[in-house]
Amino acid sequence: MFIRSASFVTASSKCSITQSSPVPCNNNNLTVSLTFNVPLFAACAPSVTISGLTGTVTPSGSLGLVSTGGSTGFSTADLANVWNRLDGTLTVNVTKSGQIGGDVTTGETSIVFNVPLKNPASGQDAPVLSVVGSFGGVSFGPLLSGHFLASSSGHPDDGLGGDSYNITQGVSSNAPQLTMLPLPTLYSQFPLFVVTNHMWTFVAQSSPFPCAANTLTFALQGRVSLLGACNPVITIGGLGGTATPDNASLPVSFVSDGSSANFQRLTTTLYGNWSQKAGNLTINMTSAVTAVSMVDILVFQITLANAPFPDSARSLCTPPLACDRVVTGVTSVVSTSLGGTAFTDSQWMAGYGSAPAVFGGTPLVAGTTFSISQAASEVVAAIGDALPLNLRSLTFNMWNSQTSANPCDNNAITVTLRVSVPVFTTCLYKGAVVQTNVTLSGLVGSTTPSGAINVVSSGSFASTGMWLSSGSLVLTPATTLIASTQASASGAHTIIFTLTNQQSANAGSFLTATSSPYSSSSNDNTNGGVMSILPLNWSTKIASQSTPWPCAPNTISITLQPFISLLSTCKASAADSAGRPNITISGLTGTTTGNNASLAVMASSSNSLPSTGSWNRATGTLVLVLAGDLIAGTAYSFSIVVTNQAQGQAAPSVSAFADRVSLNPVSSFALQLDPPNGTSENNAMFIRTPSMVSLASQTNSYPCYQNNQISVTVTVNVPFFALCTPELSMLGLTGSTTSSISDSFISSSNSSAVSWNPVDGSLRFGLIPTSLPPTPADGTGNQVVFSFIVSNGASGQTPSVNVVLKFNGTQSCTYTFPNPTTTPLYIQTPKLLSGSAQNSPYPCDRNTITFQFQPNVPIYAICTPKLIIQGLQGSAKDTQLNADGQLTLLSTSHPSLASPAAWDMVSGSMNVSFATDILSASPAFFFSVTIRNQATFQSAPTVSVVLQYTTMGGSTPAALGTVVWSMGTLWTMSTIFQPRTPAVSPWTGDPGGSWTAPLYIRAPSFNTAWMSQKTALAGAVNTISTSLNLNVDLISLCRPQIVITNLIGACVTSAPDLMLAPSNPNNDHLNFWSLSNRSGYGTFSSSTLTLLASIGVSSQVGYMFSFNITNPVQGQQSPLISIQIQNTGAIVPSPVMPVSRDSSTPAASGSYTFAAGDAMPLRVITPQFEVRSIYQLNPLPGQLNTFVVTIRASIALPDNSVITISGFLPNTPSDPSPSSRLDLAVSGPLQLDNTQNGNSLLALVKDSAGPSGTGTLGNGNFDRALGRLALYVTGAGLGAGINYAFQFKLRNPQCSMSAVQPCIRASRINAGCVVASLDRNLMTTFPATVAGMSSQTELNVDGSIVPSAQLGEALPLQVRQPLILAAYVQQSSAFPCDSNELTFLFRTSVPLVNALGQKLVFYGLKGMRGNYSVAMPGGLSQLPVKPVGSYEAATWDPVQGTLTVPVSSLEAGIDYQF
Q1: HEC assignment per residue over 514-534
Q2: Fewest Cβ atoms nearer than 10 Å: which of 117, 290, 738, 1198?
Q3: In 3D, which of 355, 378, 377 has the Cα closest to residue 366?
Q4: Which residues partner with 1125 through β-bridges?
Q5: Nearest to residue 1118, comparing CAs of 1090, 1138, 1103?
Q6: 3-state secondary structure of 228
Q7: Helix (DSSP H) and strand (DSSP E) numbers for the chain
């Protein structure tokens, strides 16, 4: 039934589509050539569909196809077709009856025909074409352009590089290069490729000047000729910014460029539609180009009016780069009959070359000069001037000068300027002709009022200009201001006018020039601006004084010399006939001279200065009204008398200025040094600041000392004047208990009104001033000496004591004593060095604490000293040692200490009194006390020692004080410390390695706490050995207990009492008692062992003993066992610490050998099946399979224990007969058999639970639904550590199956204390790298030939994949409708079992027609089958195409044929 499929012959020489023309709007014949691999028969209704012919304007319908070649029998009459322009599809039906073509050798047939189409007006790339053939409704192909079809999509290379042609050809010089442009050479191979009509253009202008008439010259050349059929319209855009208004008939002059006549040209005048706002010119070419003519080159000119300023939207770059090219476009419209298609093509225009040029009267001929009426001869064309509408900017360059810089003077100003472009008298702007003007700005600093002023010029401007008081002069051009580039050339323009200077100084400014309606910029080239007016300045300015003393009369002398004259012409207002500025002297602050409108002024012989001035004290200002002019360069001197203030000050900044004119700079007088001392004290209003130094001493700095004499010397640097009312104070003398010093005050100088305030510690007294300055003259020898006696306070202090000098009640100067220890009433801070130690840190023990003290100053009894020791908490009451509320002082070193001391046990506070003074600070004094330690351990409490004075002494000795001495550490107690007997043992846990801190009570703990066990077997009797070593003596008063917790899993049948056994000859176990007071016993309850130490246990002594428990039956790690000492009455329990566990290996127990770590107490090896292996003997599907099992438990399995082996569930969901997956009709007994792998258990297990005698020995119970085998242990049970082996049989699944992973567990194990179980564990199987355990004979079922056991086939329920190893079929005839005998041969990999209903099924026995299945003839029937030596009946289904063959038990590896 093989039939050749129709297709195209894909060789490029036998299938192609080409075109005749790529020109827009032109007729285009496509030539189609196709070759088939079979003849064309009418019965097959052959057709060809060409898709992708898009972009044409040929209307839909039937095209006039023409045959141009092909195989025999092919003609134009056979080309019936349907054309659809919208989707570009042409379907050609070959209508020839009979046969076309058919090569006798190859069967090939070819057809060739033309397709007439019309190109669109717009260019396009060749579309991707697809050619599909059809025979009898069955399609083949497609052929694709550029692939099988010998045609291409896209476009050919035209060799022009796109727009690069314009850049290299069109702007390499100042004239366009008009060259014939060829069509692409390979356009025929790109069907329906249409050339895009790019327009290469040239444009240039005649004038770059604003407001000038500008002729634009255009030269256009198309990529292809302008075909008349396209009805072209030319639109030129981008000409925005001109002054020419809209014009629907703007003349467009087409001219010849004088070059070769090989091109089609126009030489006529047309009228374009001009839009000013859009900057577009549209030229309708319909009247100039006929429908059939072709035009290649267009050269034409238009004239526009330039705007008064460049178009800011343009972005022209520096020549000769081609930039800011104007966008042009050529629009073509194809007639409606061709579909109304339109296109718009735009390219760039460039209008300059590499040399300066403009284009005007002669098209395409460059010029370089301008009219002399618009520009001087030196102004010529520049590169870029030919750019269309590229306008130059207007720039003014100016030079100026003035005749006077004096305030209030007439000033003649001369300005010379030139312009970069001509400035016309009028300009077309916003549709109207407007008058131009030139405005000079920046003429600030004049008092000339606004209005018309006279202007003298060289004829370029009108004789008058409009002056604006804001500083601008508006000029009207009288003629065109021609452009120029040189200041001295004919293009320079000069203007002269006069203004009046203002009174105040003016720095001058640079001029700016603008012109309306032009946009312009300007440059002022003058070295300094116009309208510069000088300020008033002092060339000499000096101020000095006669004395610097506070409160003294002072003569101020001033000298001034002006830089310019102060004249009467600078009036206060325009209405005044004359007037002079007033001079103001300011900054003379620091006087007490009151305001005076007529303060006497002592002037020199000049008559220009007045005899009085107006004086203001607050501002220090003197105003002088001039009596005459001050002449420049003349020095004027005068003086005044004032009184200095009491406060010192630096010389202030004194300045002089005049009103109505500017002073530059407004600055201080030059300060003159006063000879001969070379100091600055003669500067005006410098007042010496009073200062002083002081020396002081006292007789004693001890607290509570009663007779302390203080002596003081004060030296001041200024004399005392009566106007200052001098007063001396000493402040900060606090800390004294003296209420009055009037009897002890002594002064070496005259003093008055002595006062003492003990509350704030202030001493004040007045000073009687001297009539003359002190000697030496600078005042440094003015001294005051005085002394007085006070009583020191009880507390140490470092007071801040100041000596203060006041003038007129205001503080003038202060002296602070720099050394705190020599300051009056400095009192040493009392300090007490202390040390302490105890002789026992044990809970409940007697404890003697020794204290030692050393003060740094004497202790005076007048202030009632007290020694208070606080924080001694942690003791227990013991009236045999101390009476209630008292502590007896032992070993006291000084008779002043009173015993017993008051004692508060709760707060831990004791109070020691002093009977007499302790006048010596050395040696230290000491004492001891004995107390009882508490039962609770604690860190050393914070013990504070306070020595304080409780009364103040002095004038008020009964006043209560709280003066606490500061404390330090002292420890020199080796000779007075009382050690304990027996001595305290050191312990590494003591803080800092020391236990002597008072009432540090050691936390009862263990230096050693160690345990070990004898066996780690589950359920075994186990001996636990224990070793202890304590860090404290266990005092019987505390009734101490040792508590061992977390003995998890231990079973004690004799609880609560647990007998202890000796571990050494010392019988250490007898030191411990049970809670029921049995010696050598402990109390066990809830995993806790408690030992009572009733007769005392010593520290640093090792105690060893052991005891027996029964191990748990479940495996466990050694628990974290803890141990603790508990003292009766302890508020806080002692720390719990872990017991060290023996990590060694115990001795072997019977057949078991232990591992490292098994000696850790209560570590129990998890009971399990140490051996639990299983493997199978037969991997073949559907066959009975033998499973061999070996087990060994680490714990005995007694009667009633249950062993469960699970996991026998097939994992083959595709098994066709799930009901027979395992060969058991129902769940129930399963026979077990012995093997040679271990001991037999057939007499020890049965198939059901119950007492001995029930169930069947040697059987197990199999649950088919759960895949589980249960063995019930009976009789003597299974011993620990013994290998047991057995086997049983199950039938394999019929399909392949991956191995299962059986599990084994044991339950209901009676182990004495509890009923236990062995956790479920995976059974051990042979690795996948091990072959099956079966023999070759066992695999050869019924004579089958199968491979031997394979790797991994010993894994349980690993079942081979049943495969058909060989399957062949062949037919007797390939002719349609002929009788056909099929012969089959097959061979399987596994035996087939008839009892399981297995059969062979052959599929796909169908015919094929047109890719669809067709049923074979005949109905459902029985067909004879011919196996080797016998016949059997098979079932045939012709609709489904299946043949089903039943089988008997067939051998594997045998070939069967029928």
Answers
A1: EEECCCEEEEECCCCCEEEEC
A2: 290
A3: 355
A4: 1042
A5: 1138
A6: helix
A7: 2, 96
What dihedral do alpha carbons 210, 211, 217, 220 form, nearest 10°? Answer: 70
Name the DSSP letter for residue 842: S
Measure the CA–CA gap between 1002 and 232, rounded to whole angstroms. Answer: 117
- DSSP lists the bridge partners of residue 1286 as 1189
* Residue matched to tokens 């060994």: 1192
Structure tokens at 276: 């000013």
Q: What is the mean pLDDT of each run of 10 residues along the chain (1458 residues)?
A: 72 85 86 88 86 90 91 84 94 81 78 91 86 87 73 69 36 52 79 80 85 86 68 78 91 70 63 89 75 62 90 56 49 47 49 68 79 85 81 90 82 90 91 92 89 88 91 92 75 88 84 92 84 82 86 88 76 70 88 93 82 93 87 86 90 83 56 49 86 89 88 86 86 88 76 83 82 48 84 87 90 89 89 86 91 85 85 90 89 82 93 81 79 91 84 55 59 61 86 89 92 87 92 86 93 88 87 89 94 82 91 89 88 85 86 86 90 90 87 86 89 52 61 90 90 87 89 88 89 84 90 78 80 53 67 88 84 59 81 72 74 56 46 73 76 75
Task: Characterize the bridge pairing of strands 342-350 and 16-18.
Answer: unpaired
Asked if the bond preceding 581 is cis, omega within 30° of 0, the reply is: no
Phi and psi torsions of 1068, nearest 5°: -60, -25
Pairing relationship of beta strands 802-807 and 727-731 according to DSSP bridges: antiparallel
Name every residue whose Cβ is closer than 8 Å to that of residue 918 and which is 6 or more positions away in sequence: 855, 858, 859, 894, 896, 925
Amino acid (one-letter) located at 1231:
Q
CB 109, CB 120: distance < 8 Å: no
Alpha helices in 1005-1157 (DSSP H): none
- Residue 339 tokens read as 């579909």
Q: What is the three-class DSSP state of 993?
A: helix
Identify the helix (H) or strand (E) that includes residue 1401: strand 1399-1402
140 neighbors 8 (Cβ within 8 angstroms): yes
Q: Are 950 and 866 in contact (CB under 8 A)?
A: yes
Query: Is 0.70 topped by the overall pTM?
Result: no
Handedness of CA 1107, 1112, 1113, 1117 (dihedral sign): negative
The H or E element spanning position 165 is: helix 164-165
Tokens of 59: 């209307």
Per-residue confidence (pLDDT) for residue 229, from 0 to 100: 66
Count of alpha carbons within 13 Å of 106, Cβ hemisphere only?
Answer: 9
| Residue 820 phi, psi dihedral angles, 5° rounding | -60, -35
CB atoms within 10 A of CB 1051: 17
